[in-house]
Amino acid sequence: MDKSFFADKKICILGDRDGIPGPAIAECLNTVGGEILFSSTECFV
Amino acid sequence: MNFPVIKAAGFVLVHAPNIMMEHGTTITMERKNNPDSDYLQKTAQSIRSFEEAVNYAPNQVFIGNLTPEDLQELPRPWHQNPVNKGPQGKYGDIIPENEFYAVMKIADSFQLVELEEEFAARVKTILVSKNIFNDKQLDLLDKSSERDYIEKLVYSGKADGLYENNQLVGCVREAHESDPNLSAHVVFENLVAKASGILALKNLLNKNNLDAAQIDYIIETSEEAIGDMNQRGGGNLAKAIGEIADCSNATGVDMRAFCAGPAHGILTAAALVQSGIFKNVVVMAGGSSAKLGMNSRDHVNKDMPVLEDMVGGYAVLISENDGKNPVIRTDIVGKHKISSGSSPQAVIQAIVVDPLEKNQLKLTDVDVYAPELQNAEITTPAGAGDVPLANYKMIGAMAVKRGEISREELPQFVTQHGVTGFAPTQGHIPSGVPLLGYIRDNILAEKMQRAMIIGKGSLFLGRMTDLFDGISFIIESNSGVLQDSLKGNNEEEFKQEIRNMLADALQELARSMGGGRPSDE
Prior knowledge:
The complex is a heterodimer of chains A (45) and B (521). Chain A is of the alpha+beta class. Chain A is 18% helix and 33% strand. The mean pLDDT of chain A is 88. Chain A has one domain (3-42). Chain B has a domain at 329-513: 3-Layer(aba) Sandwich (Peroxisomal Thiolase, Chain A, domain 1), CATH 3.40.47. Chain B has helices spanning 17-23, 25-33, 38-45, 50-54, 57-62, 68-73, 97-107, 117-130, 135-139, 147-155, 184-207, 237-244, 261-274, 296-301, 344-358, 376-379, 387-401, 410-417, 436-444, 483-487, 491-513; strands spanning 5-15, 92-95, 113-115, 159-164, 167-173, 217-220, 251-254, 280-285, 310-319, 327-335, 368-370, 450-457, 469-476. In chain B, the strands form three sheets. Chain B has a six-stranded mixed β-sheet, sandwiched between helices. Chain B has a four-stranded mixed β-sheet with strand order 10-13-12-11. The radius of gyration of chain B is 24 Å and the shape is globular. Chain A binds chain B through residues 16-24, 27, 39-41, 43-45, and chain B through 259, 294-295, 341-344, 372, 374, 379, 382-385, 387, 390, 425, 427, 430, 458, 460-461, 466, 468.
């Protein structure tokens, strides 16, 4: 996927505690633009 | 330095399908929002019998009748390949739900648990034969109630029911008519944690012939908040559990860190013992009713039995160095700092790599890692994957990155330094501690020298921080040499030891000046 896809997008992040947590995804997305409206990490164990 | 030792470990599993149906949050939320759903009907039809739960191989590993290696060799799915080992294990027992209701009644200090007359008499007979509780405690089961009274309490909403084969056999009453923290639901959850904690502590004491009166301090590490509307989470389950388990000389504290609680608790216990403040500290926890059936939607969708029907509990005794039992290396501690970052790589770097590197150890120097040990048969159908395997792969990847092993050796690293997950998804319960009995036995048998316990906690679930947490420590074989004996009776041996240590340090220095890292061989 082209990085420009995220430019000007509004983003909701649902991270997984035993996969990639929300803050880590947010950190990546901050480098390619877009507005993070919500970030959360969930736990299923 | 005299490091504290892991003197004993005890465990318990409670088969709790009716508690799951009445208190598991996934199920209760569905009942509230969509009471006629297919999922609820399917779940009710997918409940395991006690015998099926006992014969489930991962549960047998938890109580010590099988090893993780045995589990790895058994055919899968485990729920279709029962083993025949019985409910009593080396480290703990599996008990049925009706006996557990009786333990909840014994654990109840405020007459909030009501048991129906016939049921109470029946379970009392069973508990008497087990010789776990004293006569005074067992006599509490004589204070039973008529079925009509229990029905009225439950139907009026002032109590939560206790069920056996879909029949109401008792209830847990609210402790206050308007305090939400003392509602029947909250008191029920807290009593489940307390009663399962009592059973774990009893197993620790009874299966290891320990004197309850010798326990100085108890650290309880579950995830329940004990308190009322003015101090939700004020505590204290630790002392409440110690009271029922006859730990007459103990006080204690509740420590909370989500799933990382047990690892934080054990390190604190180690510090208390090593400093000389207390000689014998128990770290323990009962289990969670809320988490029962957490992934049941996916289990029934895949035509599996609902496997999250087990309440877990653990207890471990940390004591002064006896020259024999495995030590907790309080000088090799990993921590996820506030500034560590939340990516899986950053987490493993902080918790696993940094403490080893600081102590000139390689990742391959740890014989076995004990991260969260959830049973993958529970988590994989729900999309959460094999959690312990993911941890082992990440630790192995760090070993590859550091040049300790080649990329091709990664699968071998995972096999050699990891174990197959076997613990129920009870939050804090799978967090490293289920392997303590196995690690202690293997170190004592000289099959293992060093293990690392890794606790991880989802602090963000409380919505007070977005941070993750983790802490680790090393368990190692006991050298058998105590500091006092070096100073006193064996002065020449002590001097020789110092000479050897100096020689080793100088050799390391010479090697490092040669260009390589000091730890490289």
